[in-house]
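FAQ

Q: What does a record look like?
A: Structure on top, sequence underneath. For example:
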């Protein structure tokens, strides 16, 4: 059995949690987070690894994009709650 690396597993779980949180906020937001992050993260990760061969930079960029998406969900949720009040 191959070795299980904890950082990619944690990233996948964080992405899943973000997509579920976005889906609980709005169905379209959950779909956008699932498909949109896939369309953004995979090419960015591949280009960083192929151009610079720096896995640390790739990890930092990947987590940074996920954090920006989380901030976007938080902003969306705060705007939705303030408009309904």
């Amino acid at each position: 059995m191959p070795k299980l690396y904890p950082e990619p597993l944690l990233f996948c779980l964080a992405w899943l949690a973000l997509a579920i949180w976005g889906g609980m906020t709005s169905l379209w937001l959950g779909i956008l987070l699932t498909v949109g992050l896939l369309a953004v993260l995979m090419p960015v990760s591949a280009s960083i690894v192929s151009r610079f061969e720096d896995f640390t930079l790739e990890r930092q960029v990947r987590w940074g994009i996920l954090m920006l998406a989380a901030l976007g969900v938080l902003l969306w949720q705060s705007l939705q709650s303030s408009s309904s009040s």
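Q: Is there anything notable about this one?
A: The chain has three helices and no strands.
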